[in-house]
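Below is a filled-in request sheet from our internal design queue. Each sheet records the structural input a requester submitted and the sequence that came back. We keep these sheets so that new team members can see what a complete request looks like end to end.

REQUESTER: design group, bay 2
PRIORITY: normal
MODE: inverse folding
CHAIN LENGTH: 108
BACKBONE (tokenized):
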């Protein structure tokens, strides 16, 4: 898993033609779902680009924990990415994201 994450991180920072093709053909389903979720919190007239950026932001919230899993397991953090931690992180990110998304739409 660590090699995959490092490879994906490298490709994200320095995309090859193969990676760009992969992203163009494999991101539609989860991006569509993420945009649909975010749209529930935004004003009905919100631009697609706004919803897309919010969805990308939302998906990125746990990315730092995945990319830096090995570093965060060491001192001074000592975070073990086990199932209880993932559950706790899920709850925290959900609360923070809900608060942020609700503030993004002043009419809610």
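RETURNED SEQUENCE:
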């Amino acid at each position: 898993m660590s090699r995959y994450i490092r490879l994906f991180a490298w490709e994200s920072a320095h995309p090859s033609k193969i990676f760009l093709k992969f992203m163009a053909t494999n991101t539609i389903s989860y991006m569509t779902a993420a945009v649909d979720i975010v749209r529930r919190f935004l004003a009905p007239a919100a631009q697609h680009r706004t919803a897309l950026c919010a969805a990308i932001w939302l998906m990125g919230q746990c990315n730092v924990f995945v990319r830096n899993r090995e570093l965060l397991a060491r001192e001074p953090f000592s975070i073990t990415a086990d199932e209880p931690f993932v559950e706790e992180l899920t709850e925290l990110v959900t609360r923070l994201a809900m608060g942020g998304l609700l503030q993004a739409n002043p009419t809610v």
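SHEET NOTES:
- Residues 28-104 form one domain.
- The longest helix spans residues 83-104.
FILED BY: M.R.
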